[in-house]
Write a structure and sequence with these properties.
- This protein has helices at residues 25-30, 49-61, 85-99, 127-148, and strands at residues 2-6, 15-19, 32-41, 65-70, 73-79, 109-121.
- The chain is 38% helix and 31% strand.
- It folds into two domains: 1-31 and 122-149, no CATH class; 32-120, no CATH class.
- By secondary structure, it is an alpha+beta fold.
- Strand 1 and strand 2 (15-19) form a beta hairpin.
- The protein has four helices and six strands; from the N terminus they run E-E-H-E-H-E-E-H-E-H.
- InterPro entries: DUF6441.
- It holds the Pfam family DUF6441.
Length: 149
């Protein structure tokens, strides 16, 4: 999310740009529902979408990932085998943190992600407030330009 005042060109009036390179920013500004089959990683921290997709693709290609239903939730699980030790490292660490186990044995199933049908997002960003904060700067630049003329 960025707000920027463009005032470098002397022959043009200053402008205020409010926006983002993220195409789905609007849902965070207004709130709404995202529908479809979504895999939410079971990690305490964040994992990037490209890295998560690479881990899932690797596990699926090796035939090691499978879906299990537990307590009404559909979980993507993977078996802890030697070939998948590197991609599963952070998921094993998270599982040890959740369960309090010292180690995860070979052949044990490790939860990777939960499959959800929809996600309801509340309003998180206040675009109007961001614009309001930048307006005094824009007004100062416009006044300076008008005095110069």
């Amino acid at each position: 999310m960025g707000i920027k005042v463009f005032d470098k060109k002397a022959d043009e009036l200053p402008a205020l740009w409010v926006g983002s390179r993220i195409p789905w920013l609007g849902i965070h500004a207004q709130g709404g529902t995202v529908r479809g089959n979504l895999l939410i990683p079971l990690l305490p921290g964040r994992i990037g979408p490209k890295r998560f997709k690479a881990v899932i693709d690797g596990l699926m290609r090796s035939g090691n990932a499978f879906f299990v239903e537990k307590n009404g939730r559909v979980l993507l699980m993977a078996e802890n085998i030697r070939e998948n030790a590197a991609p599963l490292a952070r998921f094993k660490r998270a599982e040890r943190g959740r369960t309090g186990a010292k180690q995860i044995k070979r052949g044990q199933e490790v939860p990777i992600a939960v499959l959800v049908r929809r996600v309801d997002l509340k309003r998180r960003l206040n675009l109007a407030a961001g614009v309001q904060r930048a307006l005094p700067g824009l007004a100062r630049v416009i006044e300076r330009e008008l005095r110069r003329l």
